[in-house]
Amino acid sequence: MNTNATPVQASDKLQSLFERDERLIDVVASHSPQLAKLRHSPMRRIMARVTTVAQAARLCKMSADSLVPDLNHAIGIDTAPADTTSASDETDDVVTTQWSIPASVSVVELDVREELSNGGEPFSRIMGAVGALGEREVLHLRAPFEPVPLFAVMQKRGFAHRTEQHADDDWSVWFFREEMVAEFPSAATTSAQPATAPIPNPAEPGAENAPARTEVWLDVRDMEPPEPLVRTLEALESLPDDSMLVQLNMRVPQFLLPILRERGFHFTIDEAQPNEVHVRIWRVD
Asked: What is the CA radius of gyration of the chain?
């Protein structure tokens, strides 16, 4: 038994695991056809950066309590069985953090777990809550997975964040202004951007008229988060330059849009039909 190494945890990003030991790629990939794509480097570059062990387990419809021991065993660590007490039972209404929130700070609560789990897109609600925050107010967001794509949007608005995982499908993220970073231990930050930076518009400027290209369709309507995001980015990785990806969705994928802009893609959004949204995405020439 390896007693010196740090055990793998459900909250670990796949990328950090694969950098630690390449054998773990096959361990994760062996659990489902979807995860088998991790054996190919383009898929790993997309999926591993934004996916935790718990989310990977969810994608192949298994418990993280089953996947984590497999990963630890592969690197020579024997772990005791996980406590089967439901963490969500203890944290549904009250969150006990492992760190202290300053007494001078007011916390604004926003729970989007049910909406996201049902396939909803609470992006506008989140942005509305952020826009209404006072100087000494912090947004506490509850979500069923770590909303990684949201972090880049918030960073551009001058916000840092602090995350905690309570259960496989229960995350807390605190968003606060970057000038308050010293008051929040272990907060994740990047170089500060002006707090007045605009929220991205629903469509990419200059992309009102999509070019005539071969269309590659991807239907994500029946997928659970974060699979629509992962599958779309995977498809874009191998998209030919003369083609356009058309994501068929039930709503505008707000978490996807800032990533598309960051990676230099143009897109248009067609909401012409009820409960059916076409997002056309192509590379900038």
From this structure: 20
